[in-house]
């Protein structure tokens, strides 16, 4: 099986800068949560910029990881303020990224989009 397309939410530098004060209060510097697409052809679809997709686009995970840092930070802060644990709060950010990326996933059969999920652990 091919390696999954993966975005380690805890590795998004801008997000961690924004969330640093919440992490310090939680007594943790990071939580390890990733958004992955584990379809066997996911990495091919994600990386090939030369392939035209009638719906969706390449870099369907990378683009929202860069563009949605404020929304991910807000989701994390809201979850933290609501009393969720730090890993649960970081998972809230990952859910924002998953939803945003699923809107950009090229769709032929729907299998690639359906393979997206939030998982514990980083790369």
Record the strand order, biggest sheet: 1-2-3
How many DSSP E strands?
A: 3
Tell me the span between the first and last alpha carbons.
16 Å
Structure classification: mainly alpha
Instruction: State the helix count.
Output: 6
Helical content stands at 40-55%
Largest sheet: 3 strands, antiparallel
Outline the low-pLDDT stretches: none
Shape: elongated
Order of helical and strand elements: EHEHHHHHE
Please tell me how large the radius of gyration is: 15 Å
- Mean of pLDDT: 81
Q: What count of domains describes the coordinates?
A: 1
As a percent range, the share of strand residues is 5-15%
Defining key terms:
123 residues, mainly alpha, 3-stranded antiparallel beta sheet, 6 helices, 3 strands, 49% helix, 11% strand, elongated
Structural features, described:
- With 123 residues, this protein is mainly alpha-helical.
- It has one domain (5-120).
- 49% of the residues lie in helices and 11% in strands.
- The protein has helices at 13-26, 42-47, 62-67, 69-81, 86-102, 111-114, and strands spanning 5-8, 33-37, 116-120.
- It has a three-stranded antiparallel sheet.
- Helix 1 (13-26) packs parallel to helix 4 (69-81) and helix 4 runs antiparallel to helix 5 (86-102).
- The protein is elongated.
- The protein starts with a strand and ends with a strand.
């Amino acid at each position: 099986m091919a390696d999954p397309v993966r975005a380690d939410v805890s590795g998004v530098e801008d997000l961690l800068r924004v969330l640093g004060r919440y992490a310090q209060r939680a007594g943790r510097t990071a939580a390890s949560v990733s958004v992955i697409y584990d379809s066997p052809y996911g990495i091919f679809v994600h990386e090939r910029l030369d392939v035209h997709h009638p719906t969706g686009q390449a870099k369907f995970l990378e683009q929202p990881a860069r563009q949605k840092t404020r929304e991910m930070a807000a989701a994390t802060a809201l979850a933290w303020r609501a009393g969720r644990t730090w890993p649960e709060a970081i998972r809230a950010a990952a859910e924002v990224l998953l939803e945003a990326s699923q809107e950009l996933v090229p769709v032929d059969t729907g299998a690639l989009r359906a393979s997206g999920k939030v998982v514990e652990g980083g790369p």
